[in-house]
């Protein structure tokens, strides 16, 4: 409870134990964090003084995501461009073939082989090859129903947001929040880093979290 109080105070730029004491009596946020216990300034001061040293330890756990399903920022942008063009084509076809069910594929894309051929043409025109993961996503989006297409578009959007926030060179489509970390076997794998913070003197765990720290 006191640790939560000190963390919130640090966020607010409050360092005086007496001011923190006052906030714990008057500020709703601080009252919530303390469970309305209202520790006095001496208790806060002693806690901070007695718990200066903390030890943080963690271990890297492989994420439920394949390294092969990670795409670079450039690949994501190209993937988004291709899918957006596909959506525009779908809209145009709907205007032309409005009397049909609406989920029929145009003749030039009515088989997976034709879809793959179309992707190859796009690659050649742009001079760079798409990763297999990107090709699989395009195929799934082209042949999927509206619900599947929406889910794929949401995954791509989330991956784009994560790569912008994290600054990574690539991101996993299946688990965008995981990051490449070096494992105990010295291999770069998509992983998470669960950590615990332990008080140096008592050995008591005071905090725990699952992080993206490498």
UniProtKB/TrEMBL annotation:
Comp. bias regions, Polar residues: 167-181
Region of interest: Disordered: 166-195
Domain Transposase InsH N-terminal per the UniProt entry, residue ranges: 1-49
One Pfam family, short name: DUF772
PANTHER family referenced in this protein's UniProt entry, alphabetically: TRANSPOSASE (PTHR33408), TRANSPOSASE DDE DOMAIN-CONTAINING PROTEIN (PTHR33408:SF2)
Listed name of the protein: Transposase InsH N-terminal domain-containing protein
Natural source organism: Candidatus Argoarchaeum ethanivorans
């Amino acid at each position: 409870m006191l640790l939560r109080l000190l963390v919130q105070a640090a966020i607010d730029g409050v360092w005086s134990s007496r001011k923190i004491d006052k906030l714990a009596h008057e500020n709703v946020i601080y009252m919530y964090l303390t469970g309305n216990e209202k520790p006095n300034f001496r208790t806060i001061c002693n806690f901070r003084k007695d718990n200066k040293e903390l030890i943080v330890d963690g271990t890297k756990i492989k994420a439920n995501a394949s390294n092969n399903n990670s795409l670079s920022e450039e690949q994501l942008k190209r993937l988004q461009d291709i899918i957006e063009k596909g959506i525009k084509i779908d809209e145009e076809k709907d205007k032309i073939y409005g009397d049909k069910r609406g989920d029929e594929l145009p003749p030039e894309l009515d088989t997976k082989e034709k879809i793959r051929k179309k992707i190859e043409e796009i690659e050649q025109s742009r001079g760079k090859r798409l990763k297999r993961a990107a090709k699989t996503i395009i195929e799934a989006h082209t042949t999927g129903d509206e619900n599947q297409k929406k889910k794929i578009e949401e995954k791509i959007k989330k991956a784009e947001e994560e790569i912008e926030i994290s600054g990574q060179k690539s991101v996993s489509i299946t688990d965008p929040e995981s990051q490449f970390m070096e494992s105990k076997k010295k291999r770069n794998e998509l992983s998470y880093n669960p950590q615990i913070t332990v008080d140096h003197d008592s050995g008591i765990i005071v905090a725990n979290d699952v992080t993206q720290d490498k």
